[in-house]
Design goal:
mainly alpha
């Protein structure tokens, strides 16, 4: 049993009230229900992992960090985050990068392809969509423009 994955499960936080032990606590940063565990056990914040947490408390904490620190290494996790603020930040980064032709992107298209809140971004960038799109539940709810399904079937 990999207890790290269990730490990421919002329904399993009660199992760790007594302690998290000697395991990689990065997984707990992804857990929307883990705020009390992080505070209770004084777990150091891994902001790169926290960037993927869609809970309001996590987004607020991450926003404070972004304003205070000059770092730019969180995009992989942020692209997986379904919170509206995270999607808006990804959208702004895409706009910023659109004028930088040939410069490697910070956007993680694998995580973004699986992100159910990013469907409009994916529809606007079908050439960047990855196979992870098939794990995205929103693809079965969207109405696609002509030819989009054909593009998806080629992946």
């Amino acid at each position: 049993l990999d207890r790290g994955y269990l730490l990421a499960n919002p329904a399993a936080t009660h199992l760790f009230d007594a302690g998290v032990g000697d395991i990689n606590t990065s997984w707990i940063m992804w857990n929307p229900a883990a705020k009390h565990l992080i505070e209770l056990h004084k777990i150091p914040i891994n902001y790169t992992a926290l960037a993927g947490n869609p809970a309001q408390w996590a987004v607020e904490l991450f926003k404070q960090y972004c304003e205070a620190a000059a770092v730019d290494d969180y995009w992989t996790s942020l692209c997986a985050n379904t919170h509206p603020w995270a999607i808006a930040r990804v959208r702004a980064k895409l706009f910023e990068e659109s004028s930088l032709a040939g410069i490697p992107t910070k956007i993680n298209w694998y995580n973004l392809s699986a992100n159910s809140a990013a469907i409009d971004i994916l529809e606007a960038n079908p050439d960047k969509v990855t196979l992870e799109i098939w794990t995205n539940p929103a693809i079965f709810e969207a109405t696609y423009p002509p030819g989009m399904v054909d593009v998806l079937m080629l992946l």
